Amino acid sequence: MNAAPTPQPGIMEIELYQGGASKVDGVTDILKLSSNENPYGAPESARIAAAEAAQVMHLYPNTDHASLRAAIAEVHDLDPDRIVCGVGSDEIIHLLCQAYVGPGDEVLHTEHGFLMYAISARAAGATPVKVPERDRTVDVDALLAGVTEATRLVFIANPANPTGTLLNGQDVVRLADGLPDGCLLVLDGAYAEFADDFDGGLGLAQHRENVFATRTFSKLYGLGGLRVGWGYGSRAVVDVLNRIRGPFNLSNVALAAAEAAVRDRDFAARCVADNTVQRARLRKGLAGLNLPSDPSAANFVLARFADEAEATSCDAFLKSRGVIVRHPKSYGFPDCLRITVGDAAGVDRLLEGIAAWREQ
After folding, report:
1. Rounded to whole angstroms, what are the CA distances from 220 to 139, 160, 314?
2. pLDDT category of residue 21 using cuts at 50, 70 and 90
3. pLDDT digits 0-9 by tens, 324-359
4. pLDDT(310) > 80
5. Residue 288: its pLDDT value, please?
6. Helix H or strand E encompassing 70
7. C-beta atoms surrounding 240 within 10 Å
8. Whole-prediction pTM value?
9. pLDDT tens-place string over residues 234-272
10. Contact 339, 301 (CB under 8 A)
11. Quick one: which of 27, 204, 219, 248 is 20 to 30 A from 168 by CA?
């Protein structure tokens, strides 16, 4: 019998990505706080647009995403020709690695960074290099010290996942300034909308050739199930990414829903305002239960327990009550639980569950 082909170097070193759990055997009343989803779902405007687009699902979508790019550009005051759209920001990350790294190249990321950075680097044959953080926050000095002649891409999430911590603008500029020629800084802004007075690096990407910013429709806009993301940077980088992305990577339904969602500024403002209130309630409630957490600029909080056993015990107890959070062991936090900020009722139920666990 003929042997199967051998995969490219690095492929078999990839650990399969595990998303947040969504069900518990034997429990029906589920509160999912494991994937940082919008507790209010998608805006009604996006649902209507998706339903209308579904009526013509037999037609191919356009390949240039012009209408969606125009809407994004209008909302964020950007150049639409410097926007590229993908199947979530995950695809943008993957395309950047596919385009700019290969065997012998290195991709830098922080020790608690998004798992897709290393996965996409290995998929391209490159070597992911992990650098330490400082107090669960991106450490610019450690990143700059980790740069070598082989470094081509540097990924940071800001706000970071799973910590929710935010690197200030001056430090981001210092990082961009310190990188050598031929090295691209990628600012992953999946949670940028939840941070006060923060543009997720779009302004920096507007004026610097070595900075590229990514965004997603999965969090604030509640379109995780449709998978839409985008990136912004120099025309040269966007041109390269468009050459390798699939021509029909986004469906008619996804394009229509995303355009409606990004234009629905009232919905976005309400969700951000509510997240700010409930996030503060969640952190205060956790502190009252002797569970510290760093100030979060995202739509989740990382609760720190005494040790892994305590975090595992609380996680199991919450699941028995239908409350699902994320135990981020794969991110290097075995003694923590990452908790999505829910609506008021969701925060109440979560805190009541942890209080009951404390009492047992």
Report:
1. 27, 15, 28
2. low
3. 999 999 899 999 999 999 999 999 999 999 999 999
4. yes
5. 97
6. helix 66-76
7. 18
8. 0.92
9. 999 999 999 999 999 999 999 999 999 999 999 999 999
10. yes
11. 219
Query: Which residues fall within 8 angstroms of residue 81, CB to CB, at 6 or more apart?
Result: 69, 235, 238
Contact in structure between 278 and 265 (CB atoms under 8 Å)? no
Q: Assign 355 to helix, strand or coil.
A: helix
Task: Give the whole-angstrom CA distance, residue 288 versus residue 303.
Answer: 12
Backbone φ and ψ for 346, nearest 5 degrees, come out as -65, -40
Q: How many CA atoms lie within 13 A of 32 on its CB side?
A: 14
Nearest CA among 169, 220, 211 for reference residue 192 = 220
Q: Which amino acid is at 219?
A: K
Residue-range domains of the chain with CATH: 18-41+266-359 (3.90.1150.10), 44-263 (3.40.640.10)
Could you tell me if 31 and 322 are in contact, meaning their C-beta atoms sit under 8 angstroms apart?
A: yes
Cα 341 from Cα 356, distance rounded (Å): 19
Residue-wise pLDDT for 34-83, tens only, equals 999 999 999 999 999 999 999 999 999 999 999 999 999 999 999 999 99
Query: Residue 113: what residue type?
Result: G
Tell me what pLDDT residue 9 has. 76
Angle, vertex CA 106, rays to CA 101 and CA 111, nearest 5: 125
Rounding to the nearest 10 degrees, give the CA dihedral for residues 346, 347, 353, 358.
170
Query: How far apart are alpha carbons 119 and 127 in whole angstroms?
Result: 10
The Cα 68–Cα 198 span in angstroms is: 22
User: Alpha helices of 194-343 — where are they, by DSSP H?
Assistant: 202-207, 235-244, 252-263, 265-288, 308-320
What's the confidence (pLDDT) of residue 17? 64
Q: Token pair 């390798």 is at which residue?
A: 244
Distance from C-alpha of 89 to C-alpha of 91, rounded to nearest angstrom: 5
Q: Strand ranges (DSSP E) for the chain?
A: 31-32, 83-86, 106-110, 127-131, 151-157, 184-188, 211-216, 229-232, 300-304, 323-324, 336-340
Distances (CA, A) of 177 to 126, 184, 299, 313: 24, 11, 30, 45
Identify which has the larger pLDDT, 233 or 8.
Answer: 233
Question: What would the two tokens of residue 358 be?
Answer: 């404390």
